């Protein structure tokens, strides 16, 4: 915690001025690495407040296949629960599309009405070399169409052989096992390089069954127990299987570096405990071309990338079971009742297809030894189709077009000035303009006759009669100043005004038919959502201060970051129809602009305790508090992580690195009323972690939730992991409102990594 690798790691590697050893090889000589980098410092880019890389990254990724979980101990970050590899990071209470997430520089977009395939789900934890987090205040060169902050995920930079070395050949292999859910993963990486050409490949696969909670959680406030088709402690719809591959080619010639990254992901199954559907197929292909050049005047970076996503949803096994015997309508085990028709349905296929084209040009101009000017232009063209093929019963006879030919194009220009007027002062000032243009084609329901269920025909006709083209002009500003009072105290002050336009689902999802609306839900609360074409962009103004008190060598440190954000036109939700909205149930809601504010504090610290024959002992801590308020209703904002504290007692001895971790989380009772957000109780968890590093071998092991506590995930949403999920509020005892998704019970994990 608070351990800080120098951010130049990425900047230097990208600029091609030095080839960086992979973090896997760095292991114990992290300190040395820092020193090397610092000596090469020119005007340093503003350090991101947090970075996860090197040994810290390796320790964090043992036992998880979800890249977002690598951010769990980053100050200010909390995670919305989703599928096993798709958690959505929130920064200071703002999540999902409100956070700019770049994977190897690409702005990836979740193409799914439930945001099941968010950006970080496209890179395996074992392929990540570093994660940098900017909370709230973001330099405009890294911001854009987001208000909460920025997360930069980078895979390993290319390595080249030294000029007199001839060839460089490297390989790495790893495997992990987690007892809860019987989860395992395998990853391999290999690279070969001359002094000018480098080729590398990384592939990984991970698989898990449903996990088990620390006890029986299926007690439903409304109806007693839910259907008992699964053991009472088994969390339905938490299984997954993923496959990720990256091929990276790079050429280096003097001060020029050209990189081509080709990525392919195939997720045959990822089930969702807080969604009514499951992801039964996700295929993404990416090509990413990047040029970096060093010139007398500075550095030039050019990048273009193209991604296609094919996403498919239907009911996974735990959601399919109910239908056979109870309804007499749908097949139990997936055997289709043929032919489909008004009395026979075979599931509910939902397809989403998208393409994303991105292009970026950035110039870092060295004005002097102490001043840097960054100029940049970015373009992104996004296309999305979301359609549901006929499957019978009410979902019949035609195709339901949720979004037809959705378009969202962004054009951005920015200028950013960074300076070090005196050795103690560092300042940054930037302005960024974005134009966001959106449009979509005509829609239709399954059934186009006036008697179709849920008012489909009339709502489709009204939507089609509207002009749906929208253009937003968004102005972003940010200013940061850092001042070293002396070698043990640093003060940092930031102000930012950041703007995000609504996404395609927020503006263009059109049906209030509960069955259809409940398929559109990006937050896992079980409600149905209807869009609003006239939504305005969200505008967030943030003020943040960091006081950083530390030993000159950072053996101990204490950091406090209080922050305040006011969001005008925050996209919250209101009842779609006041007359039918009820407490303690799922409802149909509509996105609406409302004023909101968020404030809180992050506290982190670490201190050495003692040193004896058993090693060096230390204490690390992280405390986070966030409060979110809807200023119009006075209610809380949805999914705000309650007050929480993580303390770790660490021990280092030779190659051993061990820790006892205690996590304390308060009750979540500051709730979004309109969403009928479920209260969750406070809890304490104990984790044990160990690792040993040799020159070419690293082993990680541990026990998470040592005491097998049964607890609800505060940000896990509503449990929809089994039973009859298609009815909004079923009355037959299955899956009523009121059960939260529980966290994982006791779990043993072990991970092994070898490098050659
Ligand atoms: Cu989906």
Describe this structure in words.
By secondary structure, the chain is mainly beta. It has a single domain (about 50-205, about 220-320, about 350-390, about 400-755), classed as TonB-dependent receptor, beta-barrel domain (Maltoporin, Chain A, Beta Barrel), CATH 2.40.170.20. The strands form 4 sheets. The chain has a 22-stranded antiparallel barrel. Strands 1-7-8-5-6 form a 5-stranded mixed β-sheet. A 3-stranded antiparallel β-sheet has the order 2-3-4, with no helix packed on it. The longest helix is centred in the N-terminal third of the chain and has 10 residues, at about 30-40.
List keywords for this structure.
single chain; 756 residues; mainly beta; Maltoporin, Chain A; 22-stranded antiparallel barrel; 33 strands; 8% helix; globular; disordered N terminus; binds copper (II) ion
Looking at the structure, the CATH topology is Maltoporin, Chain A
**What's the level 1 CATH class?**
Mainly Beta
- What integer is the average pLDDT? 90
Major sheet size, sense and barrel closure: 22 strands, antiparallel, barrel
The number of helical elements comes to 9
Apparent shape: globular
CATH superfamily: TonB-dependent receptor, beta-barrel domain
Strand percentage lies at over 45%
Number of strands: 33
CATH architectural grouping: Beta Barrel
Summarize the structure.
It is built from nine helices and 33 strands. With 756 residues, the chain is mainly beta.
């Amino acid at each position: 915690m608070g351990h800080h690798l120098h951010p130049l790691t990425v900047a230097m590697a990208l600029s091609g001025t030095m080839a960086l050893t992979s973090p896997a090889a760095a292991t114990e000589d992290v300190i040395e690495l820092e020193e090397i980098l610092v000596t090469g410092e020119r005007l340093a880019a503003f350090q991101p407040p947090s970075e996860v890389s090197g040994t810290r990254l390796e320790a964090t990724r043992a036992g998880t296949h979800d890249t977002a979980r690598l951010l769990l101990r980053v100050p200010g970050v909390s995670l919305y629960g989703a599928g096993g590899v798709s958690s959505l990071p929130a920064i200071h209470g703002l999540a999902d599309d409100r956070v700019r997430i770049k994977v190897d520089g690409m702005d990836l977009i979740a193409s799914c009405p439930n945001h099941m395939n968010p950006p970080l789900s496209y890179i395996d934890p074992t392929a990540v070399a570093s994660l940098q987090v900017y909370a709230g205040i973001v330099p405009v060169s890294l911001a854009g169409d987001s208000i909460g902050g920025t997360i930069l995920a980078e895979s390993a930079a290319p390595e080249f052989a030294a000029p007199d070395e001839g060839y460089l050949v490297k390989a790495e292999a790893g495997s992990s096992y987690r007892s809860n859910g019987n989860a395992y993963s395998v990853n391999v990486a290999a690279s070969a390089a001359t002094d000018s050409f480098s080729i590398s490949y990384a592939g990984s696969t991970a698989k898990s069954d449903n996990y088990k909670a620390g006890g029986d959680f299926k007690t439903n406030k409304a109806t007693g127990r839910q259907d008992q088709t699964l053991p009472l402690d088994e969390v339905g719809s938490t299984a997954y299987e993923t496959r990720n591959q990256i091929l990276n080619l790079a050429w280096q010639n003097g001060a020029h570096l050209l990189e081509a990254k080709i990525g392919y992901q195939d997720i045959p199954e990822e089930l969702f405990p807080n969604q009514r559907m499951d992801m039964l197929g996700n295929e993404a292909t990416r090509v990413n071309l990047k040029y970096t050049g060093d010139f007398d005047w500075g550095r030039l970076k050019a990048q273009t990338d193209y991604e296609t996503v094919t996403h498919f949803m239907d009911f996974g096994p735990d959601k399919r079971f109910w239908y056979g015997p109870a309804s007499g309508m749908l097949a139990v085990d997936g055997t289709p009742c043929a032919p489909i028709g008004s009395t026979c349905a075979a599931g509910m296929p939902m397809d989403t297809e998208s393409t994303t084209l991105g292009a970026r040009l950035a110039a870092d101009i060295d004005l002097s030894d102490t001043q840097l000017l960054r100029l940049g232009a970015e373009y992104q063209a996004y296309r999305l189709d979301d359609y549901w093929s006929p499957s019978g019963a009410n979902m019949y006879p035609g195709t339901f077009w949720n979004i037809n030919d959705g378009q969202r194009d962004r054009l951005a220009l920015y200028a950013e000035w960074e300076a070090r007027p005196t050795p103690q002062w560092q300042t940054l000032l930037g302005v960024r303009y974005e134009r966001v243009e959106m449009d979509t084609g005509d829609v239709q329901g399954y059934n186009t006759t006036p008697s179709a269920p849920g008012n489909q025909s009339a709502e489709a006709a009204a939507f089609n009669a509207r002009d749906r083209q929208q253009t937003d002009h968004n102005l972003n500003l940010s200013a940061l100043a850092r001042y070293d009072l002396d070698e043990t105290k640093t003060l940092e002050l930031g102000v930012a005004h950041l703007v995000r336009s609504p996404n395609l689902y927020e503006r263009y999802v059109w049906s209030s038919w509960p069955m259809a609306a409940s398929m559109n839900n990006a937050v896992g609360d079980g409600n149905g959502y209807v869009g609003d074409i006239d939504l305005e962009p969200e505008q967030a103004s943030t003020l943040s201060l960091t006081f950083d008190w530390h030993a000159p060598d950072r053996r101990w440190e204490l950091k406090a970051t209080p922050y305040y954000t006011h969001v005008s036109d925050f996209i919250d939700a209101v009842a779609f129809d006041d007359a039918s909205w009820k407490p303690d149930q799922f409802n149909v809601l509509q996105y609406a602009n409302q004023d909101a504010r968020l404030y809180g504090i992050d506290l982190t610290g670490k201190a050495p305790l003692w040193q004896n024959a058993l090693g060096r002992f230390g204490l690390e801590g992280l405390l986070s508090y966030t409060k979110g308020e809807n200023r119009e209703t006075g209610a809380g904002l949805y999914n705000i992580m309650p007050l929480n504290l993580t303390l770790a007692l660490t021990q280092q001895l030779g190659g051993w690195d061990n820790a006892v971790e205690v996590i304390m989380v308060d009750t979540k009772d500051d709730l979004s009323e309109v969403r009928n957000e479920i209260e969750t109780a406070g809890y304490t968890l104990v984790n044990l972690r160990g690792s040993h590093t040799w020159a070419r071998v690293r082993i990680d092991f541990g026990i998470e939730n040592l005491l097998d506590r049964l607890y609800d995930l505060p940000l896990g949403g509503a449990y929809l992991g089994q039973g009859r999920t298609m009815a909004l509020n079923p009355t037959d005892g299955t899956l009523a409102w009121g059960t939260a998704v529980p966290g994982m019970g006791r779990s043993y994990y072990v991970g092994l990594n070898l490098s050659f």
